[in-house]
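Write out this protein's structure.
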Amino acid sequence: MNLFKKCLLVVSVLSVAACTDLDELLVNPNGVSPDQADASSLYNSIQLTFNDVQNDPYFFAAGLARMDAETGGFTYTATHQPTEFDGMWEAFYAGFLPDADAFIALAEPLGQDAAAASVKIMKAYGYMQFADLFGDVPFDEAGQGNSENQITNPTRTPGAEVYASANALLDEAIAQLEGADDFELAFDNFYGGSAEDWATLARTLKLRNAVTTRLVGGGSAVQSIVDAGDIIDENNENFEWHYGSNRNNPNNRHPFYNNSYEDDDGVYQSNWYMWLMAESKGFIDPRTRYYFFRQDKNIFPDAVEDDPNAFDCIFTAVPNPDVIPPWYEAVSEDMPYCLGSYSLGYFGRDHLNGSGIPPDGQYRTVFGLYPAGGRYDDGQTNETVQNGGTDGALGAGIEPIWQASFTHFILAEAALTGNYDGDAGELLKEAIQLSFDRVTSFESLVDGGTVIATTPVTVTIADTYAGDESVEEYIEYVMEEYEDADDTGKLAIVAREYLIALYGNGLEAYNLYRRTCLPMDVQPGIDPNPGSFIRSALYPSVHINRNLNATQKASFTEPVFWDTNDASCNY
């Protein structure tokens, strides 16, 4: 990332050097002054650091929500340590925040209101993320190390106050964006400098905050926010970080692609999540082949018979569809064990399987086309993808921080919980369609004309894409299920479908899980006694060891302020 920042800085400097008439430069409102050049490079750094920070907790949050395989240990105590978030904490408090404040101080006198407001929105999001993960965090006294009254050991502000301050910062940004011009001060990877889009995002984040905090009264704000309008409800308004396909100098590809498409085997996918998509409904979710790529589609029985030492199923030597741990069966008799799908070859790991790593790299299901920019799974090809970054869309994926489908899902939740007067069923239907539209749009990143079979007829990759009919059938199935369910069941279906659409966004999945105790029937730990669920992250070691006012929380079972569920929650 440092090389990427340097390259962006060079681009900014060259854009200034290209202007030869300095007098014109000083008076041209569209020109770039020396002060603006500093602001430009700073803005590039801010966006890069922001994306690094918001991406950092993915595997922590996604593993707990069963979106990704949680493999750090057999118990929750063993899975995550205080050092895990040292880098993120330092990047946010020592990198992003000082840069953000410096940029705002530079940009506002230059009349760059939209650019300054966009940084305030990122700053608000960062604080919301930290409050969601840790609870109380430094806010009121943060960033005061160089002030007149230096504060080098900031105390923590209660999470509820952090949220309130973040909402106030969003309001400030919205007001600043009112009538503001688009900005070209620096490259804006999110919205291309659009003041209107940044304002839409700010209003949407206020909605997100209202639903997130609905258990402590935040839901009362939902109706007025929606009635005011201008929230993210179309895919062209999505808040997404766009990765490139450059392998070196800099490597700007999706982290998931880097994880699975170079020389390493990559992380394990969640057996339960793949089963949820591939088998739980009795037919495969058409998005499954976009999310995941199976390097070997014939694991059972072929690979199991040919290479039995490649598997570590804990209770059986090899995958066995006739065996299921009794505590799995107590949750659901259909609960997957050792494989996400025996018939389709989706191979990852069970929840809290912290055993050693056998030689199974060639069999693992890896990240696919969406959102990682990897390979689309055409259902025909058995190939490994550890090929030095030459497969699929070359990593040109996205970070789905907030999408239009997410807005519809949380509004459906709000409608079912008495916080919004919309039609929850229609919102659910629209949410699923928006998710499909965004996922299938990734087809444009690969060559669909590649022939994958010639007998008995010629078949191309495009022939295997999710067509309108399969999408309609999926939505019809879910809506029939929804109509037949009681109110509790309806909310469970909304949560399940939201979790599926969230793929690539671990934080919102973790928040959903803690807020609703849903979806139901998630896979338990492979050890029958995994200990208590992690309801918030322990504070990073750098915070505890370097801040004289910092003390570690009593336990990771301590909930954040908006999580008022009791210990019987479906964790």
